[in-house]
Design goal:
321 residues, alpha/beta, Rossmann fold, 10 helices, hydrolase, Lipase_GDXG_HIS_AS, Lipase_GDXG_put_SER_AS, AB_hydrolase_fold
Length: 321
Amino acid sequence: MPLEQVAPDAVELIRAFRERGAAGFQDLPLADSRAAYELGCAANGVPSEPMERVEDLYCPVDGGAIRLRHYLPRDPGTGTGRAVVLFLHGGGWVIGSLQTHDRLCRRLAAVSGLDVVAVDYRLAPEHPFPTPLEDCRAALGFVRAQAAGRGWDPHRVVVAGDSAGGNLATVLATDPGCAVEGTTLLGQLLLYPVANLLQESPSYARITEGFPLTADSMRWFRNLYLPDGDAAGDLRVSPGLRSAAELARLGAPPAFVVTVGLDPLADEGIEYAGLLARAGVPVEHHHLPRHAHGLFTSAGRIPTGARLLDRAAAWAAILAS
């Protein structure tokens, strides 16, 4: 795809990526892909926002623990009953960490005024499906268990995530088996989410080279996350397979959805936003046809990403008010 079709504020990053050889995540050894993603997010993310407090917490899982990171914004609400954004990072369930999305989470907390709890769920292929999802559900249970002591309201939780994290957030918001008693999800904030790993949409055929995330990248992530390929039809993997009638019956919460056109996930994200709307779910959907996947972890270099991240934070704040 020629650079003339890339949005003006993103074209320099895509040009630089191509000049460096345009190696996708799948083209590198796994450890190198993880390291490259860390470096890219550090170089291109939004500036780090000061917080009242940032602390790492530990959530019990399987006899061990996963790390969570709590961002308390300056001038938070006092006493009990503060809403929480549970943030699940992207990276194809294979790469990414608390650190790759640290500045994004700080920005969400600063602009929304809400507490943000980010989840360092275990990654595939060492921990394939369903472990990452189970870790995220455990984190929601941790928010409920810690609510009284930390001033949180477990009935005012927004689940949020980008890419694979958007997939995990969507499943928490729509799958009855993932519900955590004593919690209520106010909304789902989905940034170019994975909605359907069973069927490749036409956007897979459009985005095959020249961008950090391509169709081959997604196939690589899928194969590492789902060593049993039959699991792709599981609704805990492909929530976009649900019908509008089923989502309406389940009472899916309001959604904020961002899709980008230069992305193999574009069409499935658009379809999922439409599915929610047909189910009667309030949806705010933003589609940017000339931007690429990774917009939000590159929002320090792409002003459109920073503006839309602030809009997402404002949406969460209004929802939680």
